[in-house]
UniProtKB/TrEMBL annotation:
The organism of origin for this protein: Singulisphaera acidiphila (strain ATCC BAA-1392 / DSM 18658 / VKM B-2454 / MOB10)
Superkingdom of the source species: Bacteria
Domain Glycosyltransferase subfamily 4-like N-terminal: 15-202
InterPro entries found in the cross-reference section: Glyco_trans_1 (IPR001296), Glyco_trans_4-like_N (IPR028098), Glycosyltransferase_grp1 (IPR050194)
Residue span(s) of domain Glycosyl transferase family: 215-387
Keyword Amino-acid biosynthesis: no
Single GO MF annotation: hexosyltransferase activity
PANTHER family: SULFOQUINOVOSYL TRANSFERASE SQD2
Pfam families registered for this protein in UniProt: Glyco_trans_4_4, Glycos_transf_1
Protein's name in the database: Glycosyltransferase
Annotated keywords: Transferase
Keyword Transferase belongs to the record: yes
């Protein structure tokens, strides 16, 4: 097969959608399929609208794991965010797919053409990529497989609106296959009129060899974390929506009641959002001594990160699944997460971790303290998580399932899809 894979970022960028994409693409290539990855040159998501942020310093076309990767250059315009926001209200579906305050300007992404057998697109709310994939699929007469990663938060949460807009629902209606991660996501998509036959509940997996077997002392010694200190780890884009700010506040509360020489150490890995950077800049007294920021964490350092910590926490409201929980469990670590989005289907409360309401600092700090003060219980939860991911949470399994559905879509094309597209895009 010849495959096009549209995504907002790609390796060396890391993240849930990015790691999923690389894991699947690598397996397509290993099984003899030709893959073109169509992406941006943004390394930092905020580069989409701010040229001061980080970009990928590589040629526009490279080979990654045997796949051809084309990185379309993000363009920046004066008043881009304001103009994008205004355009998003235009009563024109293609414009809604292309424009918003956070959407990148990517000339050429809609002109990708090729004799593709299948076209994939990953990651809402950046629908400029999914719309480009739709045009490519329509031109090639190939099935479109969308993986939106809907961050559904909890009912009433304002973040939900960024993943449930009419133009996004229309894009999913154009797809031959909609790949979701949990039954929550499947139910939402089903309620939008997407037939069960076009919904694939896939779930995520973990690359065990990449995230396990690390050395406990490497990271602790490098960042001079005192011997014997309990360490809480957080790996995500550092942002209030990921619970990063709440986690700092929760650990601060706990450390107020502990002697300085026995304070809990918090190690946070991942790129920082502007919101988190402002939060730290305004933090009373400056960045606390018990907080270590690693920045973006290369894949070859993830094993040492997980080996160094005693507990993993990402109390996020914006995750459709949460691959990092699987990575923590692969290392036998207990996790503390927020009871929001698709996470409650991944983290089983009191079985493989603890769930707290998003934004509840009392419950978050109590849960962290409870596990650090009860190592036996922490081990029990972590080992339950390890047993879970040791059976069935492999990318080989996920790839086999996705490949079978892709081949089915190629063999049984939806006859109505091209006409539907022309009516909506005209």
């Amino acid at each position: 097969m010849r495959i096009a894979w549209f995504t907002h970022r790609y390796y060396p960028c890391v993240g849930g959608a990015e790691n999923y994409g690389r894991a699947i693409v690598r397996r397509f290539v290993a099984n003899g399929h030709a893959v073109d990855v169509l992406t941006s040159n943004a390394h930092d998501l905020w580069y989409f609208t701010d040229q001061r942020r980080r970009r990928v310093e590589e040629p526009s076309e490279t080979q990654v794991d045997g796949a051809r990767v084309r990185r379309f250059e993000v363009r920046h315009r004066p008043l881009q965010r304001y103009v994008g926001r205004l355009l998003s209200y235009a009563p024109h579906w293609p414009t809604q797919c292309r424009a918003d305050s956070f959407m990148p300007i990517l000339p050429g992404i809609e002109q990708v053409r090729g004799n593709y057998d299948a076209v994939f697109a990953v990651g809402f709310p950046y629908t400029v990529f999914s719309y480009g994939a739709l045009r490519t699929a329509q031109d090639a007469g190939a099935p479109l497989i969308l993986t939106p990663f809907l961050h559904l938060a909890t009912p009433g949460d304002p973040v939900r609106k960024y993943y449930t807009k009419p133009h996004q629902i229309r894009l999913l209606a154009c797809a031959d296959v909609v790949v979701v991660q949990t039954s929550l996501e499947a139910d939402v998509v089903r309620n939008w009129g997407i037939a069960d036959a076009r919904i694939l509940t896939l779930g995520m997996a973990v690359e065990h060899k990449e995230v396990t077997g690390g050395d406990r002392q490497t990271l602790r010694q490098k960042y001079q974390i005192p011997v014997g200190r309990p360490v809480v780890g957080h790996l995500a884009t550092l942002d209030p929506n990921k619970g990063s700010n709440d986690l700092v506040r929760a650990v601060a509360r706990l450390n107020e009641a502990r002697p300085l020489e026995d304070s809990i150490h918090l190690v946070m890995a991942g790129p920082s959002s502007p919101c988190f950077e402002r939060f730290l800049a305004e933090y009373p007294g400056g960045k606390p001594s018990w907080l270590t920021l690693l920045g973006p964490l290369p894949l070859d350092q993830r094993a040492d990160f997980f080996a160094a910590i005693d507990l993993f926490s990402m109390p996020s409201r914006t995750d459709s699944f949460g691959i990092v929980f699987l990575e923590a469990w692969a290392n036998g670590l207990p996790v503390v997460a927020a009871d929001a989005g698709g996470v409650p289907e991944v983290v089983r409360h009191e079985e493989t971790g603890l769930l707290v309401p998003f934004g509840d600092l009392d419950r978050l700090s109590q849960s962290i303290a409870g596990l650090l003060n009860d190592p036996a219980r922490a081990r029990q939860l972590g080992e339950a998580g390890r047993k879970l991911v040791d059976h069935g949470y492999t990318w080989d399994d996920r790839y086999a399932t996705l490949l079978a559905r892709t081949e089915q879509a190629i063999a049984n094309p939806r006859q109505s899809a091209p006409g539907w597209f022309r009516r909506q895009a005209g």
